[in-house]
Amino acid sequence: MSKPRIPAMRPALFVTCILAAPSAFAGTIELKVYGLVCGFCAQGIEKTLRRDAATADVLVSLEHKLVAIETRAGADIPDETLRRALEDAGYDVREIRRTERPLAEIRATLKKDGTS
Fold first, then answer.
1. Measured distance CA(25)–CA(33) in Å, rounded
2. Which end of the chain has less neighbouring CB within 10 Å, N or C?
3. CA–CA separation, 67 and 30 (whole Å)
């Protein structure tokens, strides 16, 4: 019996995909949230959102009324889940949008603006 012949291009493509996957950016969910008034609010939100297995990182900016969640590759958090978690904690979620901005970029922008 002869072995099936695998075209040379397929293994190369497979290896490229495998190597690129761990560094693939999954996406960011940015929320406009009203009612954030102190560092304790920010810590509570971060703790709540980090419990979700899909969460890779969280950023809370009181000054910008911003909560940003970077998701893990291949994972997502439904809008309704986010809205419920924050509204059940007493916050007013005004907007949820999905972006391609990594949290590092958002942090750098906030730092440049003189806020965090």
1. 24
2. N
3. 6
Q: Is 13 helix (H, G, I), strand (E, B) or coil?
A: helix
Q: What is the C-alpha R_g of the chain?
A: 19
What's the rounded Cα separation, in Å, for the pair 9 and 2?
Answer: 20
The structural domains of the chain, with segments of one domain joined by +, span 26-112
Task: Answer whether 103's CB lies under 8 Å from 66's CB.
Answer: no
Report the SS3 class of residue 34.
Answer: strand
Per-residue pLDDT reduced to its tens digit, 6-29? 444 444 433 334 333 433 456 999
C-alpha–C-alpha distance, residues 37 and 34, integer Å: 9
Query: Rounded to two decimals, what is the model's pTM?
Result: 0.74
Query: Which phi-psi region, left, alpha or beta, contains residue 21 (left: φ > 0; alpha: ψ -120 to 50)?
Result: alpha
**What's the CATH class of domain 26-112?**
alpha beta
Strands of the chain, DSSP E: 28-34, 55-61, 66-71, 92-99
